[in-house]
Design goal:
The protein is of the alpha+beta class. The strands form three sheets. Strands 9, 10, 11, 12, 13, 14 and 15 form a seven-stranded antiparallel sheet that branches. Strand 12 and strand 13 form a beta hairpin. Bound molecules: adenosine-5'-diphosphate and magnesium ion (MG).
């Protein structure tokens, strides 16, 4: 068995939280309890693997690199084990796939749907509509009624003026049934999700998980806004046990060495707002004073060493020794 660490072609491995800083891959490699070789995502396409080999790879917030990785890792995943899992790659910066995966694996305790045609959305208002990519609350909207939905429709689900003119011409030239097909093709689509709205929230728990280590920051909702992400109003807190238990129940289903979860608590329990299993920001690791580890049937508080590579290596070593 051999462990490969695949960086981007320039040696970058995310995420330190800064697009101009890479994780220290040689430090990570030394901390792994396995025979390790550093390579690049381009070289993976030309390599031969044994079925028990492991490829640890980075994704990117750059969309073209992500799309390239989806194609390349699809085949690598058939030859050996890849970490993060292929599911986590598809879920990266893709709230649509996240919605499908939570339905498939039954976790999150929040109703939601993925669609490309806003007329296919089915949840009743009030509800939250989100573009499938976007961070720090950009692309996250509260729809309280029809007016909000038509505002979102006109901003995100409209075709160009030029296309509207062409459609007008086609209406006269085509048979009714043909025009109906053409009109649908150029209706104005976008990738969105809808989620049930959890009202009156004061904060969101950001939980980072490395193996059995759980780190937490509480992020307050902005004033006169329902959103917390990007507010910068963060505190290091001991999370309620209910939140830790909920996080663990999700993490156990993700089958991944590490994860980032956004969790809220309401009167009817916890809900998962969003998750990532690759390239999430490490802000919570650097700014929480403690970590929480479940053993002897309880959550135990330990000091946070704030060492990113050590935590990645710990998560990977734990995952590989359990599998
Ligand atoms: N279903 C929801 N109910 C209530 N508030 C939500 C819901 N979804 C998101 N929010 C709020 O909006 C913020 C941003 O949403 P999120 O899905 O985490 O997007 P981002 O990728 O921008 O962080 C969250 O931090 C939370 O405060
Ligand atoms: Mg978020």
């Amino acid at each position: 068995m051999k462990v490969y660490i695949a960086t981007l072609p320039n040696g970058f491995f995310g995420s330190t939280g800064c697009s101009w800083q890479s994780l220290n891959v040689s430090k990570l490699s030394k901390l792994l309890n396995y025979d390790t070789e550093i390579t690049t995502i381009n070289d993976l396409t030309r390599m031969n693997f044994n079925p028990d080999d492991i490829v640890i790879y980075t994704s990117s917030d750059e969309e073209n690199i992500r799309l390239y990785l989806r194609d390349v890792m699809y085949f690598v995943n058939k030859k050996c084990k890849i970490l993060p899992s292929y599911n986590m790659l598809l879920a990266h910066e893709n709230k649509g796939f996240q919605e499908l995966l939570r339905t498939e694996l039954d976790f999150g305790n929040l109703q939601g749907n993925y669609f490309f045609d806003i007329d296919d959305s089915t949840l009743s208002v009030p509800k939250v509509l989100k573009t499938i990519s976007g961070a720090e609350s950009s692309g996250v909207f509260l729809a309280k009624g029809k007016k909000d939905i038509s505002t979102i429709k006109s901003k995100y689900f409209e075709v160009s003026k030029k296309r509207k003119i062409i459609k007008l011409q086609r209406r006269f030239k085509l048979k009714g049934s043909e025009f109906s097909i053409y009109n649908y093709r150029h209706k104005g689509f976008n990738l969105f999700i809808e989620q049930e709205f959890i009202p009156n929230l004061l904060n969101v728990f950001k939980i980072l998980i490395f193996g059995d280590r759980y780190y937490c920051l509480k992020r307050d909702v902005r004033e006169k806004d329902f959103r917390a992400s990007g507010s910068g109003l963060c505190k290091s807190v001991k999370p309620p046990e209910e939140v830790l238990d909920f996080a663990k129940s999700i993490f156990d289903k993700l089958d991944n060495p590490y994860a980032s979860l956004d969790i809220v608590q309401s009167e009817d329990g916890c809900h998962l707002i969003e998750f990532q299993g690759t390239n999430f920001g490490p802000f919570t690791l650097f700014n929480s004073s403690s970590r929480y580890v479940y053993f002897n049937k309880k959550w135990n508080e330990e000091k946070n060493n704030k060492d990113l590579e050590e935590n990645f290596a710990y998560a990977l070593n734990t995952f590989l020794s359990n599998n």
